[in-house]
Batch of 2 targets.
Target 1
Amino acid sequence: MTETGIGASVRRKEDFRFITGKGRYTDDINRPGQTYACFVRSPHAHATIDGIDASAALKTKGVLAVFTGDDIAADKVGGLICGWMIHSKDGSPMKAGAHPALAQGKVRYVGDHVAVVIAETWAIARDAAEKVLVHYTVLPANADTAAAAKPGAPVVHDVAPDNVVYDWSLGDKGATDAAFARAKHVTTLEIVNNRLVPNPMEPRSAVGDYDEGNESFTLYTTSQNPHVARLVLSAFIGIAPEHKLRVIAPDVGGGFGSKIFIYAEETICVWAAKKVRRPVKWTSDRSEAFLSDAHGRDHVTHAQLATDETGKILGLRVKTTANLGAYLSTFSSCVPTYLYAPLLSGQYDIPAIYAEVDGVYTNTAPVDAYRGAGRPEATFVVERLMEVAARELGRDPAEFRRQNFVTQFPHQTPVIMCYDGGDYPRALDRALELADYANIGKRKAESARKGLLRGVGISAYIEACGIAPSAAVGSLGAGVGLWESAEVRVNPVGTVEVLTGSHAHGQGHETTFAQLVSDRLGISIDNVSIVHGDTDKVQMGMGTYGSRSGAVGMSAIVKALDKIEAKAKKVAGHVLEASPDDIEFKNGKFSVKGTDKEIDFASLALQAYIAHKFSGQELEPGLKEGAFYDPTNFTFPAGVHICELEIDPQTGVVAIDKWTAVDDFGNLINPMIVEGQVHGGIAQGIGQALFEGAVYDKAGQLLTASYMDYQMPRAGDLLSYEVAVTNTPCPSNPLGIKGCGEAGAIAAPPAVVNALTDALGHEDVPMPATPQALWRAAQRAVTKAAAQ
Amino acid sequence: MTAVSMMVNGQHVSAEIDPRTLLVQFLREHLRLTGTHVGCDTSQCGCCVVHVNGDAIKSCTTLALTCDGAEVTTIEGLAKGDVLHPMQAAFRENHGLQCGFCTPGMIMTAVELVNRKGTNLDEHTIREELEGNLCRCTGYHNIVKAIGAGAQAMASAAE
């Protein structure tokens, strides 16, 4: 391993600009003649629009235009789309209601876009937006996940009169029923997976620009996947053909899924730029972000686990209602289906699984992928069931898990996935050791003496990352392939630019991708630049989400580097007067086997470009290669997290005092960055378990629409984590990488809730387990103890 | 429009501004100092923290006019030429940032914390003092480490 090669904790190349205030985020970009957009949003969850009077707004000095749904319709701007088709059990396609970028006739959630004001300044736009009078007839709202599809519930879209988008299933119902029929014990849980708001610290922003001379558009935007944004804006929404639309996603301040999607605001900015013939900028404030960013999770689940007399799992049965919000967001349909149910086997050998998922419309913000996307929900179901089953069976939760672990690979689960490798007992052993699990009894007794309740909770998670083999996702309904692209450009002086379809918004690709190139070509990482986030510079790519940039994005770079090496060997053959087959490439030098004839990489690059030593017909000049990499399988990161905490039953205040994470991510490129990803994921997972919850009231008003009401985890709420790895290389990609971006958020919630319920001695604890909820739960524990 | 003038990063600036202009808008829109960020609208996230007369304040809820005559330091004014401030260097060395959006506010808060509470900061103190700064990427683990290390480095630099 070199100091900057694969496996080294190289300090990040991108950091200099961020620590000196020189980052360039979308809101930092200003175009000459720029105007500002402010959206008029619905204050009602469900209403018809009976009229819009923009006359007072239009009379305001500095206002250029006010646009409504009628203008969008007149320009034939297409609706926002959902790119993954899900079929119901009866084979019928999901019921997708129209999703115009500005509402037409009806609003369906608080924050829905009714009109947009374009003005000379941000302040004028906001002032004028308040003068736009919208006449509504308010309709009853449907804002409760569990009741959304009940008879008589207000209908969100006429295409789905029962509010059911799809009723979908996966697995073998007959085999699962049979497994339950012969079970010795059945564990049953009712589970609510609380609704979250992703909250990257940088709010969404967009600058639309129209070049009249070239009839072309540029959109600067906060996107995790600028090419996908261009594809959708072009092919479906119809803003402009792809070659006349450039999408630039510069520095992006976190995404966590919420910046995958193609939203109304970005669409309107680029469309309106041509209408007003001036650049149009919009930057979300945090309140707007709460209202209109796609939310995450929001499941209500009935789950059952069947075991035999030895504790061996026989079957798993799950019935989930997933709230999809008022409209289908870009990938919303696949999150509670194909990103959820295929993970219900967890790390366990479960012979029969049957999952049913009803996706429902409500008068709430659209729900889509948020860090983990479906996999945290699946892991929560599995790991809560495992914990409770162990308790009901009188088994140690660690040993009950061990008994049921998958130990042979490849392992075909009953729910699509084929696990390619791993070592689950090893991670468990290491985690138990680091957490000093053996002595938990003593520590519980010490806490009890102080009047405190101590608990420990295990979460043995698995996730499917490296999303994803295109043929596989295509067969499941995806409208896109999920490969990744790379182009490696070697310059005549031997420096290298890598153009990648992945997009970094905190992950450190400018460093890790350069490490790969440095390692492979034997050049300094300072001589490698990573170019991403601009559709005019970079070939088509699919972007960053689902922990795919290492496993898929870097694999594409490996493939391009393979081609570079092959071509360079041919050039070296000519230069060194040897057969390319006799050329070796090692430590940045091409040499002829068995001789001292050699040429270094930079000199070889120059030879490739001057082309003096070879005929241009036989071998093309230059050294630039591209590749598209389509994975052969998902990757399966897995691990064990253990949470130990103490509850004060008098106040309901909980203190986590130890967090142990042992993860198997396959080979690591940069351990420092991997650990950082784990830390951040755990914090978001603890946030879900203890603090965060998006709450709508019965009228569909979002009660948690600011940081005053939605509790983000703060430094003082959290702790330093103990993070270790047990890496088994992934057999399904050339670097042996599994992916690490989502693990913490997937693993953490059940670890916390298993610890809380262990401390309390009963299972009745909601998420988020706020001090009030825990105080009540502690009172129930006291009552229960007294009754016994 | 009203006249305002102040020292920003050691340079005298003056302008005619709309009286409702916030300090962060003045810095970002008028002076194009875009290192100071806006992450919320309720003074909670701390992405906008700058120093005004040595105090760490939230520039998103401060009217620019109230800073008339003040000395303002932003993230752009922290390094001395090409030499990073020890706290900036500590954030890089300890991987105390990922997306970088909260980072300027974190660093400005941390520097003022050290100025106020000294260079020997325990983990508990650092965590409590970060009450006004949100980060969604790092889980704070490495930010806390970076601030502890940065404080020590500031002590060494002061010797």
Target 2
Amino acid sequence: MRLPFGPIELPPRETFADRESLLAKVMLAPAVLYVAVLVGIPFVLAILLSFSNARAGSLSFSWVGLSNYAAVLSDPTFRRALLNTVIVTVAVQVLVVILATAAAMVFRAAFVGKRIMRFFLLLPWAVPITLAVMAWTWIFDSTFSVVNWTLKVAGLLHGWLYWLGSPTLGLIAIIIVQVWRLFPFATVIVLAGMTSIPQDVVEAAIMDGAGFWRRLFQIELPFLLPVVTVAVLFGIVYTATNMSVVYLLTGGGPADSTHVLPTLAFQRGIEGLDLGQGAAIALFLLPFLLVAAIGMLRIARRSEMGSP
Amino acid sequence: MAAVEIRDLHKHFEGHRAVDGVDLSVEDGEFVVLLGPSGCGKTTLLRTIAGLEEPTSGEIRLGGRVLSRDVPPRARKIAMMFQSYALYPHRTVFGNIAFPLKALHTPRDEIEEKVRWAVRMFDIERYLDRYPRHLSGGERQRVALCRAVVREPQAFLLDEPLSNLDAKQRTTARDELKRFQEDVGITTVYVTHDQVEAMGLGDRIAVMNAGKVHQFGTPAEVYEHPADIFVATFIGLPPMNLLESIEALAPAGMLVGFRPEHFLPRSAFGEDEDVTTFRYHVRRVEYLGSERYLYGSLDAHEDPEKPIIARLPAMLRLEVEADRTHEFAVHSGQLRYFDEESGQRRDPPGAARGRADA
């Protein structure tokens, strides 16, 4: 018996799409250009500025060596801002991981109204920061603070909390807003990670007699660790570089006690016109971001190789 | 060790009857296999015994104690081995085996002692510090067995444990599993869709389909005296040949069945043996080395969709040509009769014996 069709005609010669090495270069070019022009040049510029006495609104400047760094390091406001950045970044990550894991466990279960709850969960992440922080300034307002009134009615508060008027409470307020803003995103990441936990391993643990906490800490969390790490690294970058929350909530006050590096850099460099010092302050963020970036790259590479 | 008693067990998922009224009693120390096609409810039944699923209705007893819904899996003294083995990937072999003991708050030196005892039994002492991903399939199975046995369970449930192994490993793993079960004498319920595994391992086999147990008996009973058409055609490779009512053999409304290996050339039988002969038209001969499969049809029974298959052992050196009609026969005692309507087995009709093609 013969097959009813003849052999397939092959295309006559190679096209542009067959030339993979050239194709790769062409397709990568926009991304490389983007990184070079919008990330690389400003970064180099910032480093150069930090060694100069450039001022905003003037084109002439001269090199001043390390004097910007020396001035910044001996400035108590800067040291406070650096400490605040560390405190806020670390505290926010710890709280976000705990809250996001708990929220993800709730959202994993089936319950009535899950879809609408998930929508509400994602709201803080979707609302524009300025709008959200405006709302929070009312929540923390010295006269109308809904937090204070609630605590008073509940009988838990006897004095009065001036949220944005004290260094400690101001910092706590900043942490609260940052956690509120970040944890929905982290919850979504952890929730996605939970689907990667093999169900039969969890069931094996149930059969082996492990209770809820043993299962959570010894079986499920180890599976979640890579995902949680990603959430934490993203969180570090988001919190450490974020200026708007602090700027809008406390403006760095009272008495410059709640500044973080981005707000202080903005105040000195843009509002105070001292570009050199602003750049030097901003560059102190580099270690944070470098740690986070290296961590992310390592995880990315490990998941590429496919072994946990 | 304890017996497992299952009474009228139902498990329904949103209208789907996964387990539909199962009665089963597994004796103390017995190895029972639940065998059936995928989706027949055997795994659901196993998971319900384990306590991972709540029964819709019915009762499970382990050693006389009722396992109601307020007895959680961990209080059931049941160990379970999963298809994937479900080892904990970020724990060493030692950590895996010690896990159930830690959950029981066993003292540390006792944990050490029990883990050593288990790994010695399965000869995996040298792997204690390794992680599961560095072990082969057979080694993982041993770790999973160790983890199951250190809790000293009263019953042992296995869900298709050999399906992740390749064919060669499977034979040795099967042997290992059976020897282990005999050594510790633990009551075992084993789920599989592989009838070779079921026949080879089970003291008794429960053949399941569509949530029901069709037959519960020893491998020989299930194979030689299938309770209904489902069992007759599900077990045996190739399955039992079934003929629609032939007047000479059985009254209308009955099916006649015989196994391919009992269907041999007439000359293979003695002259005075009590056989039923057929005129068998052979369409194709398949040479498989240790045996030959013949595909063909009977004069009395022509259905190209369902060929009548004969299975000739290599010992039988008779020449059988394709595209010819031969005289084949079955021992009359090897004929099985089923009700066409209900599918149930029927007693052989006493009178109807002799030549079918006369």
